[in-house]
């Protein structure tokens, strides 16, 4: 889904946000990746939506590092990636898809993989970097105009390629090539193994959090699957769903032969919304769904339900907040403390962190946005230990535990 950013800060707004009595000491930016293709191929049979989209020109500009074992030297190999696909009625692989001959920018060399950052996503991520440059370089003078070193920066991404590439695009917008020193060393970009990553709520490797999230998901299904909101969604989109496992022959409505959309249907409502957002974010007519998918009331109902499914836990459970996003806030708080201590000891050889940029996901931003003033209350002392604790306790709180926002 594309976000239309607000206008740049006016001088009056800057004066209020950055009063002269205060000194800006550190900036940490959490950024969601740019526009991407759907993570799963949905609605191909019912709407003709192609599985692979021609919006990733990176495919014709691939570069790999190659080792010469005999000399120990490294060179780069430029190459083009072409996706081999299979037609529905054949097991013979074909290059590209039929869409490559029907779209203006169709090419065998720009086909996207599922969940891949598109050219538009790269452009919007770059625009974010340009916006950061205007604010922190041009307006506030917080960052230097030319990048001569990166030891004052902390660059990080989740292991997901679209998050890493979006962060790199934003860095490109913040410091374009003509603003980098000729002898600038390659910047260090930090990543973590999935088991240790805190840049997004870690459902895969935090057992307790996973159990709690599934419990909130079940509650959302009970709350919404038979609701008027879900009925409205099904009235418009059920006809595009795959066949139901069982059907009632007494029901005359043809759409009833298709699976009913729900919180845990296949595809689930969150997946339906993912396809809607991805297709709406890109302009190509060949990658659009039927107009019913873009109905404003349907979008509002879908977002309402999916937000409750995915984020009610952050509103209602202190433990959920701690396990879901507390580890990231602990990381950020520690960097703030390190920066303050570095400035307090100017004789130290340690360069205080001035600017952080992390490529992450919408679940990261939604979980952190509410906690600006309560970092200490949900920062875990040992995130990994707490993830393995309380596994025998009920996943839902006995009563809501407000976050204070």
Automatic annotation (TrEMBL):
Its EC number is 3.1.3.8. GO terms for molecular function: inositol hexakisphosphate 3-phosphatase activity. The keyword Hydrolase applies. Transmembrane segments: none annotated. PROSITE patterns: HIS_ACID_PHOSPHAT_1 (PS00616). The keyword Cytoplasm does not apply. It is an enzyme of class 3 (hydrolase). Pfam families: His_Phos_2. Keywords: Hydrolase. It comes from the Eukaryota. PANTHER family: 2-PHOSPHOXYLOSE PHOSPHATASE 1, ACID PHOSPHATASE-RELATED. Belongs to the histidine acid phosphatase family. This is 3-phytase. It comes from Beauveria bassiana (White muscardine disease fungus).
């Amino acid at each position: 889904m594309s976000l239309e950013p607000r206008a740049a800060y006016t001088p009056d707004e800057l004066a209020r946000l950055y009063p002269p009595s205060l000194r800006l000491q550190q900036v940490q930016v959490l950024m969601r990746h740019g526009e991407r293709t759907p993570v799963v191929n949905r609605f191909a049979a019912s709407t003709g939506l192609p599985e692979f989209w021609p919006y990733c020109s990176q495919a014709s500009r691939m570069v790999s590092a190659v080792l010469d074992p005999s000399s120990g030297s490294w060179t780069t190999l430029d190459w083009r990636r072409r996706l081999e696909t299979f037609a529905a009625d054949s097991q013979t692989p074909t290059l590209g898809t039929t869409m490559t001959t029907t779209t203006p920018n169709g090419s065998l060399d720009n086909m996207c993989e599922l969940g891949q950052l598109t050219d538009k996503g790269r452009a919007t991520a770059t625009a974010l970097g340009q916006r950061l440059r205007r604010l922190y370089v041009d307006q506030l003078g917080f960052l230097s105009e030319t990048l001569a070193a990166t030891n004052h920066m902390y660059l990080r991404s989740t292991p997901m390629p679209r998050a890493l590439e979006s962060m790199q695009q934003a860095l490109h917008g913040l410091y374009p090539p003509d603003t980098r020193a000729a002898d600038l060393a390659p910047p260090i970009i930090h990543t973590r193994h999935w088991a240790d990553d805190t840049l997004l709520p870690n459902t895969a490797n935090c057992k307790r959090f996973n159990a709690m999230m599934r419990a909130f998901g079940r509650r959302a299904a009970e709350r919404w699957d038979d609701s008027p909101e879900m009925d409205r969604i099904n009235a418009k989109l059920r006809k595009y769903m795959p066949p139901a496992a069982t059907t009632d022959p007494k029901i005359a409505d043809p759409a009833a032969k298709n699976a009913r959309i729900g919180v845990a249907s296949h595809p689930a409502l969150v997946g339906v919304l993912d396809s809607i957002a991805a297709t709406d974010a890109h302009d190509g007519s060949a990658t659009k769904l039927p107009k019913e998918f873009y109905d404003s009331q349907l979008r509002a109902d879908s977002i309402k339900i999916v937000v409750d499914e995915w984020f009610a836990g952050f509103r209602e459970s202190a433990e959920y907040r701690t396990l879901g996003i507390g580890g990231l806030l602990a990381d950020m708080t520690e960097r703030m403390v390190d920066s303050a201590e570095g400035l307090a000891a100017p004789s130290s050889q340690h360069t205080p962190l001035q600017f952080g940029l992390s490529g992450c996901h919408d679940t990261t931003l939604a979980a952190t946005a509410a906690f600006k003033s309560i970092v200490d209350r949900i920062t875990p002392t040992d995130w990994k230990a707490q993830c393995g604790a309380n596994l025998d306790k009920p996943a839902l709180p006995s009563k809501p535990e407000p976050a204070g926002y």
